[in-house]
Design a protein that fits this description.
By secondary structure, the chain is mainly α. Among the domains are: about 45-125, no CATH class; about 145-220, no CATH class. About 45% of the residues lie in helices and about 0% in strands. It contains 9 helices and 2 strands. β1 and β2 form a beta hairpin. α2 packs across α5 and α6 packs across α9 (about 210-220). Bound molecules: heme C (HEC). Heme C binds near residues 171, 185 and 201.
Length: about 220
């Protein structure tokens, strides 16, 4: 009996454990073991940072669906303005490649497929007025112009430019930044690993968010 009871308890325990449902854990993009303080959940489309700037710049330009001209009685610079048009009509208009209903009209360029897919995704997700706070660490789709150049220009360029190449490193343009990043010099310096001197020289170190951007950019082959 003394041996059977613990045995039964173990069996029950194993049964309970095995019936536990394991939901797939959602790993937020931009989250990583080093930067545990950064949790960026861009699992849904953000209206204010992703959709509104796109539609405003393509549709609410002066003379179109802006507050002054409000062509077709539409002002497409706000959530309510876009919802007044309706997402179905919006999607049809941006997908069309000819005809009167095609938007934006010629000679404006068509939205690219990435933008159209984003609008489609936003609609599929219920076309919500989802507000994302821009101050969160943006490590989605890290690109030189949008993510990397601002960091290098702010923190490094003063000592690493064509006229002033500290350590013979130039970081004031894409090609040089890419070469130095690829060769690991930049990553090594901003994290002060493998014997590299910590950069920016004289400190303070870059934020974990900015370091993460550099790491992701290098990992993606410096787009
Ligand atoms: C205040 C000036 C200054 C700033 C700001 C600065 N650096 Fe430097 N950096 C230097 C100098 C000077 C050297 C040459 C080595 C030395 O003196 O430590 C250097 C060297 C380097 C090297 C070469 C290291 C090696 O081992 O070859 C890299 C890479 C580098 N910096 C990257 C950066 C990055 C990235 C930033 C911005 C995050 C930055 N630096 C900001 C002055 C600076």
């Amino acid at each position: 009996m003394k041996q059977i009871i613990p045995g039964i308890i173990i069996v029950i325990f194993v049964v309970i454990l095995s019936t536990c449902k394991h939901e797939p854990t959602q790993i937020p993009l931009g989250n990583n073991p080093i930067d545990t303080n950064i949790i960026v959940t861009y699992d849904s489309v953000c209206f204010n940072t992703q959709i509104l700037p796109l539609i405003t710049s393509s549709c609410a330009q002066a003379g179109c669906h802006d507050p002054i001209k409000h062509e077709e009685d539409l002002i497409l610079n706000s959530y309510s303005g876009i919802m007044k048009l309706g997402t179905d009509k919006l999607l049809i208009a941006v997908k069309l490649s000819s005809g009167k209903k095609m938007m934006p009209p010629l000679p404006q360029p068509r939205l690219d497929s990435t933008s159209i897919n984003l609008i489609q995704r936003w609609i599929n997700e219920g076309s919500k007025n989802r507000i994302c706070i821009p101050s969160v660490c943006d490590t989605v789709n890290v690109k030189y112009a949008t993510h990397i150049a601002p960091v290098l220009n702010t923190y490094c360029k003063g000592c690493h430019n064509a006229g002033n190449k500290g350590g013979n490193v130039n970081l004031d343009n894409y090609t040089d930044a890419k070469n130095n990043t690829i060769f690991g010099k930049v990553l090594c310096s901003v994290t002060a690993t493998s014997g590299c001197a910590l950069m920016p020289k004289g400190g303070p170190a870059l934020s974990s968010c900015n370091i993460r951007k550099l790491q992701l950019w290098a990992a993606a082959n410096c787009p």
